[in-house]
Specification:
Elements: E1 3-13, E2 20-27, E3 32-39, H1 40-50, H2 60-70, E4 74-84, E5 87-95, E6 100-106, H3 107-117, E7 121-124, H4 125-131, E8 133-134, H5 148-152, H6 161-173, H7 177-190
Parallel strand pairs: 4-7
Antiparallel strand pairs: 1-2, 1-7, 2-3, 3-8, 4-5, 5-6
Helix pairs in contact: 1-3, 2-3, 6-7
Length: 191
């Protein structure tokens, strides 16, 4: 089966499931999007890497990356290989230089690791045709869905850029990664 490459298009708080987030993967060179509901921890791990934040202590996915790198193991690709009863399944293609192995993974963890290993994310046409959607309301191609965090982001408009950077540093030190993500977004808008 032919693989279709995906990129991360955006992530937002899920309006339909409390405490969950919607990760939006987009078909490279196409209009279809794959919305995947993920948990808060995984959303945080993905957001931290997307925002290039550096937590004071490594998160689980960072630890996994360090552990794998210490033993010369790389993840070559992530494949979302199954969609059943509303759940996406994925696998990691790992290589230690002499042997390649395929490991099952939750899709959210696989995406968090793909970011850290800088490897491509793929799926099959059969999955995109069943679970993919065409989003007509994309503004800049970054965020696809409006979130409550985006609305709350405006509360930081009263701070100067220097104050925002101090708040961001403090949020990271206190491991308040959702707040840090919002502050990072506000800083990016001003730069």
């Amino acid at each position: 089966m032919k693989k279709i490459k995906l990129d991360i298009v955006g992530m937002s708080y899920s309006q339909s499931q409390s405490g969950a987030y919607a990760l939006i993967l987009g078909e490279v060179g196409g209009e279809r999007r794959l919305p995947i509901i993920i948990g808060g921890f995984e959303a945080q791990a993905i957001a931290i890497e997307l925002e290039k934040m550096h937590p004071t202590r490594p998160l689980t996915h960072d630890l996994f990356k360090r552990f794998a790198s210490a033993y010369s193991i790389v993840i070559k690709e992530v494949l979302i290989n199954k969609f059943s009863e509303g759940v996406f399944y994925a696998e990691l293609t790992c290589d230690d230089g002499s042997e390649e192995k395929i490991i099952d993974s939750r899709t959210s963890d696989a995406v968090a690791l793909a970011l850290r290993f800088n490897c491509p994310i793929y799926t099959y046409e059969s999955i995109l045709s069943v679970a993919g959607v065409v989003m007509e309301d994309e503004s800049s191609g970054k965020e696809v869905m409006e979130s409550t965090e985006e609305i709350e982001e405006s509360k930081y408009s009263q701070y100067s850029l220097k104050e925002l950077q101090k708040l961001l540093k403090k949020a990271i030190e206190n491991e308040e990664y959702e707040k840090a993500s919002l502050l990072g977004d506000e800083i990016k808008q001003r730069e």
